């Protein structure tokens, strides 16, 4: 099994676990980790940050949609 197959399998597993933020950024984070020699613990921390940020963004979008505002005003 080559690197691309393993990455696809990992991405599928993350999606199955509903870790959409991690699945969307795992390839980029792993490439950066290999290039910059980032320790494993920091890689996991970066992936968790991506997941937390993605969940926050999806929550905001969902709440705005569910509020059913007549028009959306931005600042």
Draw up the topology in text.
Blueprint: H1 3-16, H2 20-36, H3 40-67
Helix pairs in contact: 1-2, 2-3
Short description:
This protein is an all-alpha fold.
Apparent shape:
elongated
Percent of residues in β-strands: under 5%
What is the helix content? Answer: over 70%
User: Element order, helices and strands?
Assistant: HHH
Number of strands: 0
How confident is the prediction overall: mean pLDDT? Answer: 93
Give the biggest beta sheet. Answer: none
Ends distance? 50 Å
Low-pLDDT residue spans: none
The computed structural class is: mainly alpha
Helical stretch tally? 3
Distinctive features:
3 helices; mainly alpha; 75 residues; elongated
Please, could you describe this protein's structure?
The protein is mainly alpha-helical and 75 residues long. 79% of the residues lie in helices and 0% in strands. The chain has three helices and no strands. The protein is elongated, with a radius of gyration of 16 Å. The termini are far apart.
């Amino acid at each position: 099994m080559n690197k691309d197959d393993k990455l696809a399998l990992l991405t599928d597993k993350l999606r199955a676990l509903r870790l959409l933020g991690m699945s969307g950024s795992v390839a980029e984070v792993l490439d950066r980790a290999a290039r910059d020699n980032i320790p494993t613990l920091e890689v996991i921390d970066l992936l968790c940050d991506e997941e937390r940020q993605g969940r926050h963004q999806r929550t905001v979008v969902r709440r705005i949609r569910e509020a059913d505002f007549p028009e959306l005003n931005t600042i």
